[in-house]
Amino acid sequence: MMNELDDLYRQVILDHNKNPRNFGDLDPHTHDAKGHNPLCGDRIELFLDVQDGIINDIKFKADGCAISKASASIMTTVLKGKTLEEASQLFDEFHILVTDDMDAEPDTEKLGKLAVFSGVREFPARVKCASLSWHTLKTALDNKDKVITTE
What we know:
alpha+beta, Sufe protein. Chain: A, four-stranded mixed sheet
């Protein structure tokens, strides 16, 4: 099972890096934040349109490694149409996924396409790349006016 997931991980990362979904500006938007990973130079800017507690639209601009860009791309596709509570729950589940024990099987039913990021656990330095967009999301939703870093 994990070998198939590793192959899928590589394919999905490459696809979303080459053809990121929801890439660009979002105007108008209700929430935004910037994120930076000084370790490898990844940068992200996230824009959300939240109405009545639901993420109607979400876009990002990013410059960074394949894992960082792919994570942001997949995150935006998963979160569109979700409530803020669901987004917060997915943040927690994603964080557990990328930091969990190496032998733990990801709950593919619950995580869907996010499960491909379980492979990041094998490379602790890359966890920050995968989670940058998620931490930026949390900052945007908390309406904190600052740039988050992974340091």
